[in-house]
Amino acid sequence: MNAEERLRDPILCHSLLERLRALLGDEPMRFMEVCGTHTVAIFQSGLAQLLPANLTHLSGPGCPVCVTHDSEVAAFLELAENPEVLLATFGDLLRVPGPEGKSLKHAHAHGAQINIVYSPMEALTLAENHPQKTVVFLGIGFETTAPAVAATLLQAKERKLGNFTVLSLHKLVPPVLKTLLDDSACQVDAFLLPGHVSTVIGLAPYAFLARDYQVPGVVSGFEPADILLALCELAKARKEGRPCVRNAYPRGVDDMGNPRACALMEQVFEPKDALWRGLGRIPESGLKIRSQYADFDACERFALTFRPVKAIAGCRCGEVLKGAITPADCPLFGRRCTPQAPVGPCMVSTEGSCAAWYKYVGLKKEAKQ
């Protein structure tokens, strides 16, 4: 049995579940995961149904597509109407509904020039191959994807590709955790911290959780035993009354993160206030392209503004992202809103809470979320 197989071993997982029950005792605990991959892993493995009854699982704002704000969707839909623009985007973003239910998929059907890419470097190749067009790469994602976008932008400058731009909609994880905890309605007792983001930023940016809010956070891997081990660490910290930030995923995450990736981000981007679906404007929670690279900034090139737009009627994705409700609490869930015909973005992405709930739970409410 190799290491990954062992982390899925039912006997090990059963042992960790028993340990978790012993650590919790009769005390309730509400934990939130802030990574879309964790969301899928928790449902796909069946952990959502196996967790102790007094442990409540909340899905947070960990899906890049889901947290993209209505105003940001309206901005890139506006870009799609420009005949001089060729949009390059990851596939999930194609189906995100915007104002009046329109999406990039609708825009493409009406003649907009949109290419699905799997990396920002593919967008750079598009710019090389279509010199008569201005390629706009839609830069979404957290600290995990931002370094690759930064490296691509530097390549564009080196190659003097003046027809390549980035619309930076990147979001930062630590500021959104602070915003959640500052909300008096927040009932999160502990955070399952994201494995992928933490490979870049390490542990230090999360220190405020324990220091300022007395809330523990543990970085976890994605196998069932990884998640259960992290939950045991969280339960132990609460039981001992010693909140901490720990790394339970040392095979994937260095406590110091990746300094080279962080340096790339800092070279190209600077923090800015950003809009989050359901959470509004959060100070310094996004990444803006620095002025020395303004020629590659789609916002500057096209004088884009993120104007207020009418929210999608009936969609409660914002409340799902805050952990205020479960997907099944939304009256549209599984009825008007399905993966085949999504009303809100949480049903679009495979990492979205609603899409995961729909696939693994359906209309039932038994999952401990």
Number of domains: 2
Termini separation comes to 32 Å
Counting DSSP E segments of at least 2 residues, the number of strands comes to 11
- pLDDT averaged residue by residue: 93
Low-confidence spans: pLDDT under 50, at least 5 residues? Answer: none
Along the chain, the helix and strand elements come as HHEHHEHHEHEHEHEHEHHEHEHEEHHH
CATH topology of the largest domain: Rossmann fold
Percentage of residues in strands: 15-25%
Q: Decide which structural class fits the backbone.
A: alpha/beta
Q: What is the level 1 CATH name of the largest domain?
A: Alpha Beta
So, CATH architecture of the largest domain? 3-Layer(aba) Sandwich
How are the strands of the largest sheet arranged? 2-1-7-8-9
Radius of gyration of CA atoms, rounded to a whole number: 21 Å
Number of helices: 17
